[in-house]
Fold:
Amino acid sequence: MSIRARTIEAKQQKRQKILDAAKELFFNKGYYVIGIDMITEKAGVSTGTFYHYYKNKIEIYKSLQNEGLDILVDSIMKVISLPRTSSLTKLKEIARVYFRYYNDHREYFDIISILSATPDELKETQTEISRIVDRKAHSLLKMIESVLIEGIENGEFVSMNTWKVTNMFWGLMDGLILLEHRNNTLNVIGVDLEDLIKQALEITFFGIVKHKPSENRKK
Amino acid sequence: MSIRARTIEAKQQKRQKILDAAKELFFNKGYYVIGIDMITEKAGVSTGTFYHYYKNKIEIYKSLQNEGLDILVDSIMKVISLPRTSSLTKLKEIARVYFRYYNDHREYFDIISILSATPDELKETQTEISRIVDRKAHSLLKMIESVLIEGIENGEFVSMNTWKVTNMFWGLMDGLILLEHRNNTLNVIGVDLEDLIKQALEITFFGIVKHKPSENRKK
Amino acid sequence: MSIRARTIEAKQQKRQKILDAAKELFFNKGYYVIGIDMITEKAGVSTGTFYHYYKNKIEIYKSLQNEGLDILVDSIMKVISLPRTSSLTKLKEIARVYFRYYNDHREYFDIISILSATPDELKETQTEISRIVDRKAHSLLKMIESVLIEGIENGEFVSMNTWKVTNMFWGLMDGLILLEHRNNTLNVIGVDLEDLIKQALEITFFGIVKHKPSENRKK
Amino acid sequence: MSIRARTIEAKQQKRQKILDAAKELFFNKGYYVIGIDMITEKAGVSTGTFYHYYKNKIEIYKSLQNEGLDILVDSIMKVISLPRTSSLTKLKEIARVYFRYYNDHREYFDIISILSATPDELKETQTEISRIVDRKAHSLLKMIESVLIEGIENGEFVSMNTWKVTNMFWGLMDGLILLEHRNNTLNVIGVDLEDLIKQALEITFFGIVKHKPSENRKK
DNA sequence: AATGAATGAGAGTTCATTCAT
DNA sequence: CATGAATGAACTCTCATTCAT
Structure:
């Protein structure tokens, strides 16, 4: 490895070090409580270095969203491109993947949670990374919508407003995970989150799958 | 009405005016984004007046929690003291009441949401109002627990850790409402929140009600 | 006593109550630390009432100086008008009286201490009471000067700049009392303040009394 | 001198510039009258810069006490370590050194004056510098006490409570200097402060030195 | 005469961001 | 590239004083 390469790598490492420090801090305390100084101190760099790698406080928050989204998108892409899999199964798999993501990358959860209340500034400011994140989140939902469209086309699902249902589907998962995120006491009575999600989805999907006459769901 | 009485009322009105301004602002933008100046400007009072009525920023936030909780507690009390009502029905009624509360007093939702992420300061500072709010929230859950205990005693429910189940029950409702709160698109496919809550509770209660042999729940 | 008289008296009492509260507070904590609210609360009156009796914060401080000075001036006047008393004895008596004043009215000491560092505002603002206090303090020194002049005239003292010596004489006493005021440990080795003052004055007076050739300063 | 060194020096200079501005202002007007803005304006720096160098208003005041104490302690240390000098002479020298200190560093006098009334906050807050100042003041008195102990051991002084006498000794000097500090008119009649201190100490020391029967106190 | 609610300038302090070195 | 000193607007909060009742 050349010196030049090592230097470039070293830079990337520094950038990541800052991001990691910010990730942990934002996750624990939230956007407003964390100051730049706390991040630089934890990362072991100077203020100037911070601003060398990130334009401002909002930018690093967006970068975290970006990083977190990348991991999630990757996992969901894999599910969607599964061959010989029913659309309903894919949706269920997507839910399971999201749940796994929550379990394995808890640090990102609060930060990416797309629909969650984001700092005001985040919404107003439109920087480069900001647009990337928005686009990525949008494309994530578009990917899910494609499953719904696929399902309609192959006769699994009834006709529907796919975009609205996509959003609702995501919101449902998000809400249920949040439920556990806030009070991890669900399994007290033998119901664990994964099960709850499954059942909640069943209820929801009841509305979108094409019913064979024999099927009956009593309330 | 005497002059004196009119004055006292006027004072109360001004206090409320400040609280209302704060309520709307906190609701829309969150604790950290809102400055005292924004509240006083909206309320049409001076900085000094604000601090005449509220000790500090945290205190007014707590006051909003208090006010919001009072409305909710009142409604739930009424349900609990219903005569000739099964414990299960009471729990379902409590859920419906909470949903109604969310619908009618949306301004308070983010602020009181007991399990939601509260500003760090709120947790640390222990003022008078702070203790009142904590006690009130606790007693709210205790009231719900009493329904569970009642249900166990009259043979409706199986034996269980009532306190943990109480928390779970509340978390479930809170999570589901939040789900709608974030993206109000649930009814797109004909499932409205009230229905969803009902069904979610059915799933949950399946774990705690005593089953007669004839009852069957197919999944 | 008529109702009117009783009312007037009541007013005086209220005025005094405020002054007493202020006296104790200023004495313990100093001018800047004490707020109007502390005074009114201690006195059991409203803010408005305070400003009814005293123009502002400075004014009540000056009033305390005035009251304190009155007591002191009275005592010193009595000494000065003593018949058949040498000027030197008078000066020594004045010192003793000042020492007694310090002992009996310690609350006033910090406040009146004429030469002590007074709040800046006090020096700059020129109100009615302000002028009275200044005049009174000045006349107190003038009274002392008169003893010196008397002493020169009757041959007890050498010729001198009486005004400067007066100031020095007062400063000496003030400084010595302050010495004790700050660390009341003088008597540790058997020297009590009264003695120290006496001796210090002896040293000082050695410079102003006319020495007979035979005189020798012993002890 | 390297660029780096020049920079470090520049930083120290700026820190000192702020301290000097504060010194003069505090000295002239007192702790409460001086605002941060006055200091920064005089020093020609911004508010932020002030807080870059000093944690808060109390801290810079303590820093001044620290700086002032350092100068004084240095001088007194030199006296104490004088070889072949009687303990009584050392005490007298300490007094002279303190008087010189007062003369040469008048700016510090009000600020360090250990026994003087310090702002309430200063007493209550326990910061790092706060502890340093307290320790330094205490060790200053301990140094003086060591002279007394030495004097007792070598038979110069009678047995006594050395700690109490130390405090009294310091208070005596402090009081006498304060006397002059307030009204610099002592020398009006040919008695200057240095002389007065000497004489006052003679009186005091008369109580602690071992008297040979032949000794007679004259002057 | 008495009240205390209302005022608002100004206090001390923080912190995201810039820029000379 | 990296530093961290410097900035200053903005923040929360205080308090002497006023004035309608």
About this structure: The CA atoms of residues 189 and 196 of chain D lie 12 Å apart.
